[in-house]
Write a structure and sequence with these properties.
Blueprint: E1 8-12, H1 15-23, E2 28-31, E3 34-35, H2 36-48, E4 52-56, E5 60-61, H3 67-77, E6 81-84, H4 87-95, E7 99-105, H5 109-122, E8 126-130, H6 135-145, E9 149-152, H7 158-166, E10 169-174, H8 177-182
Parallel strand pairs: 1-2, 1-10, 2-4, 3-5, 4-6, 6-7, 7-8, 8-9, 9-10
Helix pairs in contact: 3-4
Length: about 180
Amino acid sequence: MPFQQQLILPAARSMKDFEKLLQLPYGYIVLLDSHISQLQSLVQLARTNGKQVLIHADLIEGLKNDEYAAEFLCQVIQPAGIMSTRAGVITKTKQNKLLAIQRLFLLDSGALQKNYALLRRTQPDYIEVLPGIMPDIITEVHRESGIPILAGGFIRTAEDVERALSAGATAVTTSNTALWKHFMK
């Protein structure tokens, strides 16, 4: 299991949160809002502290989110994995043998159907379903795709986490620091 049985993939939105995560016993962490000039040092600092970093490529300031950016992230920054809504980024990440996590924003039935077609093309290692508070959709996406699911977005309570996990999510991504502490091993 790549995430070492973590139920929570804590996601840092700020340097303060990133620093908190370095002190917590999570092996995998998600880096959300960041700047290209900070990435290499942040990933290295996390590694020094025994953490594997998943970078959200769509939220890096100063970096265009395309295949060239994905190649740069894979070859130079070398995180454990990359998250993105972009098919080309996911494809390039897989080619570089890093964990590729396709983010899906599920707004309605039409978006869900379009995303199934996208998943057949990209074949990511994981799918992050957003919002993650839709247990029936988590179950359906996992059943239809056969790809492990992460749930994210609007996860506010321990009960939200439990519902997502019961619906078949492998883990929950959250920037809610109270949930980080609640689900620590």
